[in-house]
Amino acid sequence: MNSRKLVHMFFKTLIYGGLAGLLTSFIVKWGEYANFLQPFDAIELLGVFLFFLGYALVFTVVAQTGFFAYLFVHRFGQGFFKSYWPMVQILVILFALFDLIYLTSKEIPLMFKIGMTIVVLVFGIIIARIKVKETNPSAFIPTLFVMVVVTALELTLVLRPADTAFITLMLVPVLVATAYQVLQLHKVTAVDEEHRARIHARRMERIAKQKEKLEAEGKEEQLKKVEEKEQQIIAAEKEIVLAKQRAAREKRKLEQQQRGTKKKRSKKKRKK
User: Fold this and answer.
1) How far apart are CA 85 and CA 127, in angstroms?
2) Residue environment code for 146-162, b if the CB has 16+ CB neighbours within 10 A, otherwise e
3) Which of 44, 56, 84, 203 has the smallest set of CB atoms within 10 Å of its CB?
4) Which helix (H) or strand (E) holds 30?
5) pLDDT-based confidence at residue 268 (cuts at 50, 70, 90)
6) pTM value?
7) With contact defined as beta carbons under 8 Å apart, do 85 and 77 qualify?
């Protein structure tokens, strides 16, 4: 990931989250807009518009902060829990769903809390399935964890006041912003082959110039070190190519297995 891609994702997330929150305000808080339509007051109407847009942008930034915090937690969890990390994530997801219904403010209507939890869970499952299709099956649990647990934590900012309208105004931009970030992460962190090839070519050029200079100066010891460094870079490049080939083979095998299971299911259905 480079700074250009990071900044691009930040502003796109901000746009999508802001628009989602603003559109939600037209539905949830239409009365605020209607007050200044009859009689028409452009300045006050613009003020309401900017207020809800700012509100959506603030919580979009909160969603971005939560997402990047999760990236750190995910790495830590993988290192600490190792193979048990997926199971730990499932348990935390279940606790977060329980928390949204039973441990939030009693002033919030129970049906609203149940509906909110179902929306978060269903939306999370949909995004997780899309992520799996675009990457691999192992991405399902981490994606669902982000969509459910991180969203639940961020919602605590507005759950205590127990205002269902403002909970909705936060929930929509947070879900949209988090979903966009999750679905863009593998694209943003993907290696640009042309960029990597240019960097490799520049490194080899610098090493070639260093070798020529050292040969001319007769510095054999330093020349050997530069040659060793050159060999290491070449070996690393070969390893990257081999790793990509292995990943491509594994992906083809997985696709073949999935096709085979689909064919078996279709045959069973035909027999029935």
Assistant:
1) 20
2) bbbbbbbebbeebbeee
3) 84
4) helix 30-34
5) low
6) 0.73
7) yes
What does the block give as tokens for 105? 């403010």
Phi, psi for 56 (deg, rounded to 5): -65, -40
Q: Is the dihedral of CA 23, 27, 32, 38 positive or negative?
A: positive
Q: CA-CA distance, 166 to 35, in Å (whole number)?
A: 18
CA-wise closest residue to 155 among 116, 211, 124:
116
Q: Which of 215, 88, 204, 93 is nearest to 150 (CA)?
A: 93
Structure tokens at 155: 């919602």
Dihedral sign (CA 175, 176, 180, 183): positive
Question: CA-to-CA distance for 178 and 11, rounded, in angstroms?
Answer: 13
- CA atoms of 245 and 248, how far apart (whole Å): 5
Letter for the amino acid at 233? I
In 3D space, the residue among 183, 106, 109 whose CA is nearest the CA of residue 142 turns out to be 183
Q: The tokens of 209 are what? A: 């110039």
Classify 24 in phi/psi space as left (phi over 0), alpha (psi -120 to 50) or beta. Answer: alpha
User: What does the pLDDT look like over 6-64, one tens digit per residue?
Assistant: 888 999 999 999 999 999 999 998 888 888 888 888 888 888 889 999 989 999 999 99
Instruction: Give me the phi and psi of 160, to 5 degrees please.
Output: -65, -45
